[in-house]
Amino acid sequence: MAINVSKIDDVTIISLVGRLDSNSAGEGERTVAELLDGGVARLALDFTNLDHISSAGLRVVLVAAKRIKAAAGKLVIFGMQNHVREVFEMSGFLVILTVCPDRDSALAALAG
User: Fold this and answer.
1) Which of 23, 68, 81, 106 yields a CA-CA distance of 20 to 30 A from 93?
2) 58, pLDDT greater than 90
C-alpha cells in the first residue's frame, strides 16, 4: 500500500493506494496519528485508489474518527469503490462516518 499526504488550505488529504489490511494497517495508523498529533483538525481520506480494506483497515478508520471527534475536528471519506463501500455498509460504518462521492464534495463538507 502507498500512502500519500497532501494539503488543500486547512484540509489534510490522505490518499490510500492498494490494500489497507493487516500488513499495512500499522503504517496507516501511524500516519494518521502523526498528523493528528501535529494538530490536523480537518482530515479527508481519499479511497479512490483503495482496492481492498479488511477489518484491520476498518480499525484504522475508526481510530482516526474517534481521535478527530475528540479533538473537535472533522473527518470525511471520499472516492469509495463499490466493493469497499460494501464493507463499510456491512460493518455499519456508513451510519457513523461522513462519506462523499468525490474530493470537491468532501472539501465542501469539511468547510462547513
Assistant:
1) 23
2) yes
Name every residue whose Cβ is closer than 8 Å to that of residue 110 and which is 6 or more positions away in sequence: 11, 42, 44, 74, 76
- How many CA atoms does the CB half-sphere of 109 hold within 13 Å? 19
C-alpha 70/C-alpha 73 separation (Å) is: 7
Helix H or strand E encompassing 11: strand 11-20
Q: Decide if pLDDT at 17 tops 90.
A: yes
> Can you tell me the distance from the alpha carbon of 89 to that of 25, in angstroms, rounded to the nearest whole number?
20
Query: Longest C-alpha distance within the chain, in Å?
Result: 35
- Residue 45 CB neighbours (<10 A): 26
Q: Residues 6 or more apart from 91 whose CB is under 8 A from it?
A: 58
Query: Given the C-alpha cell 463499490, which residue does it identify?
Result: 82
- DSSP annotation of 87 reads H
Q: What is d(CA 68, CA 62) in angstroms, rounded to the nearest whole number?
A: 10
